[in-house]
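Weekly puzzle thread! Below is a chain. First person to post its structure in token form gets bragging rights.
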Amino acid sequence: MAALEVEFKKFLGRGSFGSVSLFQYKGRQDGYVAVKTSDDEHAKALYREFQILSEFKGCSRIVQCYGNRVQKRYYEDGYVEYKIPMEYASGGSLRDFTDRFKDRKLPEPLIKEFTRMLLEGLAIIHRHGYVHCDLKPENILVFPTCVYKNGERRWFYELKISDFGLSKRDGDNKWWEPRHPFAGTPIYMSPESVSHGETGKGLDLWSLGCVVLEMYTGKSPWSHRENDDLEDLKKCLKKCYAPLIPNDLPCDAKLFIMTCFAFEPDERKDALTLLRHSFLRGDVNKITKLQVNQKIDNPKDFVLKLEKIRQMLSEIRSIR
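Winning reply:
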């Protein structure tokens, strides 16, 4: 780290494969960098994450890593540290961000904007053939920007997806073994991933539904159940249960979350299709068009009506 001319500021947090600390470039007031550190045991996961992040250079919805290699630091006792410098999110994680709101519930316009940003990120990830496998508030970073307009200060927020340590290639199940039957965090995992270790893009869309639900309710998915351990979740999912969607949510929001919670992965659509959902209609996806390089045409009216009917029928069948 001496070659980077930075100094340690504070410890930011610890994850499954290492810790993250904040450093500041010497002589600069605004030059911050987050450094992710792992030991020998978790070095392989860190190298893999660096390799994946290197494929997303310049993608504004994916946290950026710096440099062209994983850095090593050797100590006299033989201990080795592995480090990758990354973007620093001064707003913390989405979990930290929601903690600042009453009952941890976000305003609906902000939820829609955040959902759009996450879908843009997932569209890019899936286009590159990856599945994130651990989308949750702790792995979503918030980048605030302050703008002065007409003498007033206004804050804008950008979301970026981080922590690719558990990411897999779409459809890859070679990693599966009885001791590790799923890839991510159980309460955000889809039925097929918890039960069979499947890692398709539908897993990320189920997790997105959990995150959107949490932004509305301020509570984690499955919080309505007394027991949310893995075995209990498996029983719920086998019975075709999904996290409870409150009746007081707006209709379009419920329909969007229900699409994410479809038990057949293909019925969850894909990130690009969900960007056209009525829940987000009216948003202009300029970033997605540029980065995903795929034009999104407006469907014909009768197709929209048929889709609306299908969603309404799905809602009726899901009443319990």
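Puzzle host: Confirmed. Bonus trivia for everyone else. The first helix runs from residue 43 to 54.
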